[in-house]
């Protein structure tokens, strides 16, 4: 029985060797497939990266072209509005300029009117001051003439051919050369 055990052992060894070979072949094939899968995965990943880079470049180009187109479209769309705005601003500016001129004209007219009123007031005041001075001078002349008129009224005097004639007293004489005589008092009526 010893022989049978050896045969069985040999068969088991052969089977184990065969199983080990099969496992080793499977491991080698698995390693080979794993390596191939890694290489394929690496190539696919690199291809994917290249495609992503290409897509990014295309997107950047599309964005650049789109932004240029959008800017052109926006400019074209905004251009009439900007022209209208510019025209409105110009019209408003012209109106404000005209209004500013009108305000300055009114201001200048007011200043001229004020100066004219001051000038007329000054002239009227000057005229009244002059008239007042003349009136004061006349009043003073009248005041100065009062004693003469009172003396004339009190004296016996009259006008003779444009000259004053008096009925004189024979008494004392007056003046620096003693050439004047006192008139007689007017008789009372």
What can you tell me about this protein's structure?
With 189 residues, this protein is mainly alpha-helical. The protein has a domain at 155-189. The protein is built from one helix and four strands, in the order αββββ. It has one helix spanning 2-154, and strands at 157-160, 163-166, 168-174, 180-183. The strands form two sheets. The chain has a two-stranded antiparallel ribbon. Strands 3-4 form a two-stranded antiparallel sheet. The protein starts with a helix and ends in a 6-residue tail after the last strand. The relative contact order is 0.03. The model has no long low-confidence stretch (mean pLDDT 84).
Following the backbone from N to C, one meets helices and strands in this order, namely: HEEEE
Shape: rod-shaped
* Radius of gyration of CA atoms, rounded to a whole number: 70 Å
DSSP strand content: 5-15%
Structural class given helices, strands, pairing?
Answer: mainly alpha
Largest β sheet strand count, sense and barrel closure: 2 strands, antiparallel
Number of helices: 1
Q: Give the quaternary arrangement of the chains.
A: single chain
Largest sheet strand order: 1-2
- Mean pLDDT across all amino acids: 84
Please give the number of β-strands.
Answer: 4
Question: Which regions contain 5 or more consecutive residues with pLDDT less than 50?
Answer: none
Helix content: over 70%
- Terminus-to-terminus distance: 213 Å
């Amino acid at each position: 029985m010893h022989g049978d055990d050896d045969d069985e052992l040999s068969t088991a060894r052969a089977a184990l060797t065969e199983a080990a070979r099969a496992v080793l072949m499977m491991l080698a094939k698995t390693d080979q497939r794993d390596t191939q899968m890694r290489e394929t995965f690496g190539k696919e990943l690199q291809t994917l990266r290249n495609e992503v880079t290409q897509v990014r470049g295309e997107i950047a180009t599309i964005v650049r072209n789109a932004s240029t187109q959008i800017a052109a479209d926006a400019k074209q769309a905004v251009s009439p509005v900007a022209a209208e705005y510019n025209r409105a601003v110009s019209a408003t500016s012209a109106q404000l300029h005209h209004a500013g001129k009108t305000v300055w004209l009114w201001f200048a007219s007011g200043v001229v009117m004020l100066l004219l009123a001051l000038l007329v007031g000054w002239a009227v005041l000057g005229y009244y001051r002059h008239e007042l001075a003349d009136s004061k001078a006349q009043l003073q002349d009248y005041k100065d003439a009062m004693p003469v008129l009172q003396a004339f009224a009190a004296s016996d005097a009259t006008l003779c051919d444009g000259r004053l004639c008096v009925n004189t007293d024979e008494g004392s004489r007056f003046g620096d050369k003693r050439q004047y005589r006192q008139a007689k008092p007017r008789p009372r009526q």
